[in-house]
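Mods, move this if it's the wrong board.
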Amino acid sequence: MALYDVFGVGNALVDIQAQVDDDVLDKLSIDKGIMTLVDDEQQSNVLGHLDGRPLNRCAGGSAANTIVAIAELGGSAGYIGKVGNDAIGEFFLKDMRALGVSIQVTPSDLPTGTCAVLITDDAQRTMLTNLAASTTLGPDDIDEEKIAQSKYVYVEGYLLTGDSTKAAAYKAFELAKKHNVKVAFTASDPFLVNMIRDEIWDLITGPVDLFFCNEEEAKSLTGESDALKCAVKIHEHCENVALTLGGKGSIVMHGGEEFPIEGVSVQAIDTTGAGDMYAGAMLYGITNGMDWRTAGHLASHAAGRVVAQLGARLDRKFTRDEIEKLSRLTDD
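Not the wrong board. Structure tokens:
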């Protein structure tokens, strides 16, 4: 019996979230709605502009958010990501463990990475990421025993941007295949697809069993303009595909079949972590006895719930009754 439903590998960051006006982005000369990598000095400048504003702090990073979602839904999860030997790193570890996520890591000499998440009134989130210690994650940090005891390994695409972190990702893929563990992989960001398109094709044609992407990423990857055509083209190379369409829902491909998943109508407040939450709920579903359509249904509702609040963590968690009710709806 597997110890973990899902074992995640990703950048360990502490998210610092704040609501801001557009003029803050203008003053900082930041492109709205995307993730930008910054150094220590740039991040310090950004955080300085948030003085006096209410801030929310939590353990984050793309894969970490997905692993947290699995734990919050009642699944068993482990995670590996590199933090520094500092107070922020200790906060990250305590925050993850308090949620029931198994995490053991040898701290780095660098400071713990942070992600400033600036949320504007239109619910767009602009992220400034200082990777710091997370860049030191390497293949020696990947625990073969824990991967062998997992149903799925989940790897974020952002790891492919650095030599050491890429080596860690590929070590996770290798060990998963060695122990017949399924591999899930997320494209992470359109800029990444544009940068390493051929490598992503190699991955989804090779070790990846389940590929997560959004509509923009899928269009960039395939060259198609229609979302369904994108999903079908990717499914020709990958066993399972989950393509999110924002408020329009998603498309799940499995076993040669297409499952259109409805969107959930909500008043969006903050889109931070919507894709991460979707992936977490989907992975929870398929590792806990749900069929693919039902798992997609749960994932859509979970993503809808998280965008209707601030932050990537659910303020109101799903009860067992709610999950069972969502499962019954797909049978009607």
